[in-house]
Amino acid sequence: MPEGVIAEAFFAGVWVEVSIEQALQFDPKPLLRCAECHGRVFAHKDYADGAAAAFAHKAAHSGCSTKSTFDGVQTRHPDAIG
Ligand SMILES: [Zn+2]
User: Fold this and answer.
1) Which of 2, 16, 37, 41 is the most buried (most CB within 10 A)?
2) Which of 80, 4, 82, 12 lies closest to 40, judged by CA?
3) Residue 27 C-alpha to ligand 1 middle, in angstroms?
4) Residue 38: left if φ>0, alpha if ψ -120 to 50, beta else—which one?
């Protein structure tokens, strides 16, 4: 399940909202975080099986509503950045 198509990228000292399409084109890749829980995410391309490109959390976090494992209570990621 996609975990989101919007994240935040760190450019020149500020967090900027970026789409998955933008994030996949950055070179070098900036630091990316989830716009909701601020946990670190990475951008993955379309999968060969047809799953859409999306951001995925590096470390699982049940307090983020963008995840299929969301437990119903939004909390900041334990390894939040920025
Ligand atoms: Zn999150």
Assistant:
1) 41
2) 80
3) 23
4) left
How far away, in angstroms, is 24 Cα from ligand 1 center?
18
Percentage of the chain exceeding pLDDT 70: 96
Give pLDDT, residue 3: 64
How far is ligand 1, taken at its centre, from the CA of residue 48, in Å? Answer: 25
How close is the Cα of 71 to the center of ligand 1, in Å?
12
Which sequence spans correspond to the domains of the chain?
1-77
- Ligand 1 centroid – CA 80 distance (Å): 9
State phi, psi for 10 to the nearest 5 degrees. -95, 110
Predicted confidence (pLDDT) per residue in 5-35, tens digit: 899 999 999 999 999 999 999 999 999 999 9
